[in-house]
Amino acid sequence: MKLCALRIRVQTLLAVASLTAMVVALPSMATEPTPSTPRQTDGPTAMARARVAADVLMSSYEPGKAWFPSSWWNSAVALQTVGDYMQRTGDRRYLGQLNNTFEKDKGVFPAGVLSGDPLLGNFTSRAIDDSEWWGLTWLQAYDLTHDPKYLNMAVTIANYVDGYWDTSTCGGGVWWDGERTYKNAIVNGLWIRLTAELHNRIPGDTLWLGRSRTAWAWFQGSGMINAKGLVNDGLTNACTNNGQNVWTYNQGLAIGAGLELWRATRDPQVLTSVRRLADAAIGPDALVTNGVLSETCDAADQTCDDNGKQFKGIFMRYWTDLVDTTHDRGYAAFLGQQAESVWNDDRDAAGRLGTRWSGATDDDHPNVFDWRTQASALSALIGDVPGFTPLASLAATLSPAQPVIMPAASGTSVIPLELGTSATGFFPLLALASVDAPTGWSASPRAFLVRLQPHGNAIPANSSIALKVSVPGSASDGHHVITASVAAPGLRFTTQADVLVAHAIDFDTGTVDENPWLFDAGGSQSNGVQNRFADGNAHFTYRFPLPADTTSAHVTLTIDAEFLVQASPDNEHWTTVLQETQPVTDGSNKADRTIDLTPYLGVGADGSKPVYLNVSDAFPNDGWGGRVYHVTAVIAEGGAAQR
Fold first, then answer.
1. Engineered SS bond to 585: which of 363, 443, 513, 624, CB 3.0-4.6 Å?
2. Among candidates 363, 314, 12, 6, which has minimal Cα distance to 189?
3. Stated pTM of the model
């Protein structure tokens, strides 16, 4: 008998035996699942976690514009992070998106299309650091593909940036902007890393190495590194440390710059300087709060802007490089601690990762989840994957991950779910899946086998199975957890769905209370509580799964700006129900507006009468799309109205 066939037969026998034991042992599902104690994770699980998070990130990628909506430099970093993921895990599914961005976005664009600044072509602009981010992104793409077009683009960008190296002010350094107004840490940390990476990829180079050495020496003596070994933001007009905030990405780039230069030179003094920067970063009163990497804007009374949301991920990218280079156990332990905190404390059921890696939240300053925070936290999960890629991995997801049930006055409601599994490896895999639900609920099927046939790591094998979860009419309002686990020899992964049972619709936007109702964020943004808006071609869609015995319903939106609101029974056929006909950019038209949803009651697979409500921009060219603050509804069931 061939080895492969024998392996499959043994796995099948073991799985069937385990399945039989599990079915016998699960008579009641009498308690809510209890989260497992956080621990350092194994390599296959770390790889599976990174895959789940990377897939969530890439769901926000916009193929038409070939970027992540509304942020130019952040898109470069997000794509670079996806490149890190592919390089670390062997997964190659997103190479096409890298190439799509390269081909579509390398031209000239006026201000407001992809960036607030005009783009000058070849990913350059007056924002010199933005240009450098793209240079590093294309070097990552070159490492993945060995396609010379990416290396050539990085050289083109670096030549452009070199024009802003200026010894006449502060003795050297690259200017942060085309107007030459500021010399700061980020643009110069990027410059050292970019030039050193070019040297390490161009045989026989001396030009870029010389520039990298010169820039490192200047940076070390510039005064931006303070007496504690922490990197302040930049220099004053008098060429002294300006004492501004120590952002994590400045510290991280200084570490990453030195590491790449050390690889080019093997100069022990460079590595000594890198270690001093690293030790300072995680030392007392530095960048760590209760063991978790924290930005100053992560404080409970603050909110990070769209730039700050991504800083910690940049730090972790280069911290991973530090661990790989030095093999220092202390540095590795810190990396592992960040990954565990992200996964256990900063993740919702949909696999979204927030800006505060501790998971801390506040009603006025909630933990924010978007593609920028996803890319940032993903870097910690990538770093937790062993440098020697695990030979196999197994992951699972439940979809929808945050379903809403609005029970009818009597009877049982059914939630249709899909358990998706994915695996990498070089042998057929037979996994045992089990589903657990709260007391009084039932799941079908409760336990079953999943067969997966991976062929390496480049394209994970996938499988899915439909589930039905029955929710009794007596279920209390609030959040209830459904847990699904998959296990194979040496592999295990657990995923959850967070079910909201609600008899009323009443929430502020920009909060966790909004998330279950938000069917499709559609590139919309939220800058805090009572704030969700959709500019340009962005939109956002709510799904209201009204009870099966609903006879009429009205929803009230507190809304302003240039809104266009449409309703649909099926998310396909839309009718305009509200529209602002005048350009309004000052919020002066803010008001409560009520919409009759009765004509749009649909028929859902769960037995509900769903209505979809889509908010977009009535004047997409000026950037002031519909903004919603609060949503509430009045629902009549069998003649009785309720809120």
1. 624
2. 314
3. 0.91
